[in-house]
């Protein structure tokens, strides 16, 4: 049996961090899908500040859907519903002022109220706790995207 493999292009589409992609590629071929996902999970647990910046550069703000993938992941958020767009814009602005980067959350499977609740909660994090939450959410997004690509 040949094993499970992926490409660098696919990996960078999941998480735009070259070191992470290289770490995952180095373990190929994997025995099965689960082994590949476990390796990807492990490699994404720690990101340098530069890697975090690289990864965030490709993510649109919540409510400002980017490409087809982001639109699908944010499908539970309808900016046209009620005051959602206004609340998201205000929350995004407050977050960016507080932390100096775009608010990132695994939006897949979450609705606007849940995302806004998380945004409000995370505005009270200290810098270290918030950085850890951002890395964790990036890892979750990367794994969902990688799993969908297999």
From TrEMBL:
Highest taxon in the source lineage: Bacteria
Transmembrane segments: none
Pathway(s) the chain acts in: Purine metabolism; urate degradation; (S)-allantoin from urate: step 3/3
GO MF annotation list: 2-oxo-4-hydroxy-4-carboxy-5-ureidoimidazoline decarboxylase activity
Domain Oxo-4-hydroxy-4-carboxy-5-ureidoimidazoline decarboxylase: 7-147
Gene3D superfamilies reported for this sequence: Oxo-4-hydroxy-4-carboxy-5-ureidoimidazoline decarboxylase (1.10.3330.10)
Keywords: Decarboxylase, Lyase, Purine metabolism
InterPro entries in UniProt: OHCU_decarboxylase, OHCU_decarboxylase-2, OHCU_decarboxylase_sf
Catalytic activity: 5-hydroxy-2-oxo-4-ureido-2,5-dihydro-1H-imidazole-5-carboxylate + H(+) = (S)-allantoin + CO2
EC number(s) on file: 4.1.1.97
Example GO biological process: urate catabolic process
Name the record gives this protein: 2-oxo-4-hydroxy-4-carboxy-5-ureidoimidazoline decarboxylase
Organism: Jiangella ureilytica
Gene: uraD
């Amino acid at each position: 049996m040949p094993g499970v493999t992926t490409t660098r292009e696919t990996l960078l589409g999941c998480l735009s961090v070259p070191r992470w992609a290289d770490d995952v590629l180095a373990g190929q071929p994997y025995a099965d899908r689960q082994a590949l996902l476990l390796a990807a999970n492990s490699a994404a647990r720690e990101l340098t500040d530069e890697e975090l910046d690289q990864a965030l550069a490709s993510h649109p703000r919540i409510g400002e859907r980017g490409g087809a993938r982001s639109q699908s992941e944010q499908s539970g958020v309808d900016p046209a519903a009620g005051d959602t767009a206004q609340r998201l814009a205000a929350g995004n602005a407050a977050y960016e002022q507080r932390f100096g980067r775009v608010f990132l959350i695994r939006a897949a499977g979450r609705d606007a109220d849940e995302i806004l609740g998380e945004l409000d909660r995370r505005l009270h994090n200290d810098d270290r706790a918030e950085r850890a939450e951002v890395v964790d959410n990036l890892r979750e997004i990367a794994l969902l995207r990688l799993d969908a690509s297999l």
